[in-house]
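tool=predict chain=A
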Amino acid sequence: MFKYIKNDLPASIVVFFVALPLCLGIALASGAPLFSGLIAGIIGGIVVGALSGSNIGVSGPAAGLAAIVLVAITSLGYENFLVAVVIGGVIQLLFGVLRLGIIGYFFPSSVIKGMLTGIGIIIILKQIRFFFGMDKNVSGDIDFLKVEWNNLLSGLLNDINALLSGNISIGATVIGIIAIGILLLWSNVLSKKGKIFQLIQGPLVAVVVGIIYYITTKDGSMGLVESQLVSVPVPDSFDSFKGQFSFPNFAVISKPEIWITGFTIALVASLETLLCVEATDKLDPYKNVTPTNRELFAQGTGNIISGLIGGLPITQVIVRSSANIQSGGRTKLSAIVHGFFLLISVILIPTLLNKIPLAVLAAVLFIVGFKLAKPSTFKTMFSLGWKQWLPFMATVLPMVITGDLLLGIGLGLAVGIVVILLKSFQNSHFLHKEGEDVDDGKIKMTLAEEVTFFNKGAILKELDNLPNDSALELDVTKTRYLDNDIIEILDDFAFKAKERNINIKLISERGIVENPDSYLEFFKLNKKN
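tool=predict ok
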């Protein structure tokens, strides 16, 4: 695990600075205490990172669960909700034992790429008001980290209106632009000039510059206000630090709503994790393959511990994972060390962390989002044809419009299934009329290797359109599976063919049969289906 420490240590620093605001933001979006998001981030890094079989995946509080968690906390109360988190973790352990980790492999590549692209666009859009230091979001909240997942486009329109009306902070905008300049300079130029620039990463330099900027300008017209900075809880004693932890109320464990919430958390968290695993493995330049059942075991263990000490539900998170990959992370050490950084920073330097401008973190996330949603990705998917383009866009658009990860994945998968069914309908058979200029009535129909009830309509249409007094050669030599529905269609057509004077020659690997009386008996005899 320590073989690539020179790669993993710098990557862990980048992931730490990406994870910190996300832990806080997701906690706020979930209606939970801020500290609960940090607990989930620490457990996701140290515990899940150690148990996981993924080299580059990073876990933490789940953005995709924010809406579910908000409703659950509102209806159950926080201590009761923590019981559901623990139950969800136990169910995830059971999923791992039952080897249900293969579920993620049934999602098309176009949907996974759409998920990555949609997340990238959302990341970019959600950072606009942080970058420009805007005073309010769409709902009038002065809370910069509040995430309105279901109101993304309205928020964007509000942000554009604020930009046009000049309702921005000059200081936040200046340090944001400086941070982007540092990041681009570091990644495109300096990182190729020497090892020192690979060890000391651009995001760390940007954060240090941001802190210096805040300290030197805080009393001037270009200074930043408190709401434009990171906000980490600052305990004034060990007792106050302990007081930030919450514990589950197991007295309510027999209530049905607790178990329903627990199962919902387990199902959604497992699905989000498996999809992120699939996406992360695709992004990994070294093409490591994550053992999915072990991942479910690791996530379940993490959720049990997180729930027991007051943390939010945990999943593998594509934002942290992609930041880890893009920063050169090679082993799970980067995820584990980032968790320790979160723990140490919360204990030792919360006051220093609260001097980091949000505009700097927004600049870091702008780069992450752009790398996930490159314009070249859209061009590539479009060039692959409509069978890839439609599921891709059906995933991206709902995610961007609603901010709902699962809705986008669900619609993308539905469109992908429709495409498969349509292609199955079209590819059930090949129909050929011998001699384009010779009307001798000879027609050859070759059935596909697998013909199911989805193909009934196409085959029935072709048979009904055959001209009277013609000859049909029905070739099933390559067919390995023939659905009973298709055999029934052929049996019905045998009767019609005699009335229309259509001669049928059935060609199979067993030989040629003229006008069989019963296709059902023929295929049973030859065990075709």
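The beta strands are 59-61, 314-316, 429-433, 442-447, 450-451, 471-475, 481-482, 503-508, 511-514. The longest helix spans residues 256-283.
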